[in-house]
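SECTION: protein entry
WANTED: fold as tokens:
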Amino acid sequence: MNPIINQLFSGNSIMNMFKSVRNAQNPGALLMSLAQNNSQLGQVLNYINQNGGNAKQLFYDMAKQKGKDPNVIINQLNNM
């Protein structure tokens, strides 16, 4: 697995959060609920909102800025 993904998901709480949101019937509502209890997630959501509100486009733009292929990361997440 990509070292960036390993670092991102090294903590069980982050991995559990990812799986919960991915499997939720209403991911947006769950994400907002989690953000209320997790200041770092709240900061991420604020950053997304401050940059147009399109998380997907922001992810792709940031990956390009860092010289990473966003599709590789997405495929790795889908294979978890």
User: Anything to note?
Assistant: The radius of gyration is 13 Å. The mean pLDDT is 80.
